[in-house]
Design goal:
single chain, alpha/beta, Rossmann fold, N-(1-d-carboxylethyl)-l-norvaline Dehydrogenase, domain 2, 3 domains, six-stranded parallel sheet, binds nicotinamide-adenine-dinucleotide
Length: about 450
């Protein structure tokens, strides 16, 4: 099939590349000219394991193209995926300006029947707004062309996006059109060959499914963080509790790790957007508010522990920071807990030397340039170099090379062997035995 994918971010680029990998002809569109030029030359704007290989193979095979012109991309395709950003607006609602701009542009150029697929995460009811935006433009030019709307939310995880897209747990297709359903089935069938995992539902149900899924995962994390904070006060090790409850198949082990808070481009904004949807219905979302509140406080926890240990004035102190990305496997810095900690440490007068295996370029673009020029923040090319003469180390992102490091080498490098482990990567007892002062999250025992 010939497809158009609008937006070449984490979702759009992965979607485009994976559909091309299955033999479709895909044109990816982005308004960001630099991104498009880079992609044409094989330079990927994001880090995502396995993505560069399939982008390069399919570009070379002529199945994957990049352009800034939606009209050009639409010319010989009849499925248009909208995969642009839906960032939070001032009031927490999902900002639909990019989605609706694309919908209007589709309406301006659509010439024959097509399926307009919303892959961006959008509030319930957006399908109707997209339909109205497309139809409005068709009417304006006196056109007569039919189209269908599909909501096809994306469930990929950054860091494993290609794998998730190629082998999805489920594909959600929201539509009321048989014709669109058949087209979507044909498109996704190659991804679910061993057993069908395509779930059909209404557009609104599909839109809500995406928010409910993210809100559930965020809830599990905030729940576990709340339990961990209580464990800490009761002299209980939350890691034992995690294993103890995870073994119940009704609970399971996923998303019950205590830590220094969730970040990323999805959970924080999607929980906010769901809260906003509830408010608009005059419904008080008590649980969702608590999930968000717990996460906001959790992001300050490492700093509070540092202050308890070193005092509020950190001038003259240096901290090593392991991990900048909001989670391992990505260079995405959106809403990363490391940003909160950096602001707090530097605000209290400390210097920080940070290392991240892939996110340092992205972080440099995100963080105040004055920190680098003023010497408050430096990036170390190596994880051990970030520990040289530091008063303490804080682990914020659980990248694999941080899981089992050379503790002897660390102790020899650090001025004082103090570790604040925001992801509970190490065993408190073993750390104590090897001469570290160790602070985890909820490791009360
Ligand atoms: P992103 O910010 O990485 O990429 C969005 C892209 O859209 C950018 O390259 C931007 O230049 C482009 N764009 C904006 N307006 C445009 C327009 N009018 N025409 C063409 N291109 C335009 O965003 P993302 O992380 O890929 O997320 C996209 C959507 O998917 C969001 O709604 C998000 O919530 C959802 N989502 C994201 C993830 C994830 O892990 N990142 C997972 C599932 C769903």
């Amino acid at each position: 099939m010939k497809l158009t994918v609008v937006g070449t971010g984490y979702v759009g680029l992965v979607t485009g590349a994976c559909f091309a990998e299955m033999g479709n002809e895909v044109t990816c569109v982005d308004v960001d000219q630099k991104k498009v030029e880079g992609l044409r030359q094989g330079v990927l704007p994001i880090y995502e394991p396995g993505l560069d290989a399939i982008v390069h193979t399919n570009t070379r095979a002529g199945r994957l193209k990049f352009t800034t012109s939606l009209a050009e991309a639409m010319r010989d395709s009849n499925v248009y995926f909208i995969a642009v950003g839906t960032p939070p607006g001032e009031d927490g609602s999902a900002d639909l300006k990019h989605v609706l701009a694309v919908a209007r542009e589709i309406g301006q150029h659509i010439e024959r029947y097509a399926v307009v697929v919303d892959k961006s995460t959008v509030p319930v009811g957006t399908g109707d707004r997209v339909r109205a935006a497309v139809q409005g433009e068709i009417d304006r030019r006196g056109g007569k062309v039919g189209f269908d709307i599909v909501s096809n939310p994306e469930f990929l995880k950054e860091g494993a996006a290609v794998e998730d897209f190629m082998r999805p747990d489920r594909v959600v297709i929201g539509t009321d059109s048989e014709r669109a359903r058949a087209i979507m089935h044909e498109l996704y069938a190659p991804f679910v060959r061993n057993h069908d995992r395509i779930l059909y539902m209404g557009v609104r149900e599909a839109e809500m499914t995406k928010y409910a899924a993210n809100a559930m995962l965020a809830t599990r994390i905030s729940f576990m963080n709340e339990v961990a904070n209580l464990c800490e006060r009761l002299g209980v090790d939350v890691e034992s509790v995690r294993v103890g409850i995870g073994s119940d198949p009704r609970i399971g082990y996923s998303f019950i790790y205590a830590g220094c808070g969730y970040g990323g481009s999805c959970f924080p904004k999607d929980v906010k957007a769901l809260i906003h949807m509830a408010e608009q219905q005059d419904f008080e979302p008590k649980l969702l508010r608590a999930v968000e509140d717990r996460n906001d406080s959790q992001k300050h926890l490492l700093f509070e522990k540092i202050v308890r240990r070193f005092g509020a004035d950190l001038s003259g102190r240096t901290f090593g920071l392991w991990g900048l990305a909001f989670k391992p496997g990505t260079d995405d810095m959106r809403e990363a807990p490391s940003i909160v900690l950096l602001h707090e440490l530097i605000g209290a007068g400390a210097r920080v030397v940070a290392h991240d295996p892939v996110a340092m370029d992205a972080a440099r673009r995100e963080l105040p340039a004055a920190w680098f020029s003023g010497g408050q923040l430096r990036f170390a090319p190596d994880q051990y170099e970030a520990l040289k003469d530091v008063d303490a180390m804080a682990l914020v992102t659980e990248w694999k090379p941080f899981r089992h490091p050379d503790f002897e080498r660390m102790r020899a490098l650090m001025k004082s062997a103090v570790i604040f482990d925001g992801r509970n990567q190490y065993d408190p007892k073993a750390m104590k035995e090897s001469g570290f002062e160790y602070y985890g999250i909820g490791r009360g025992a």
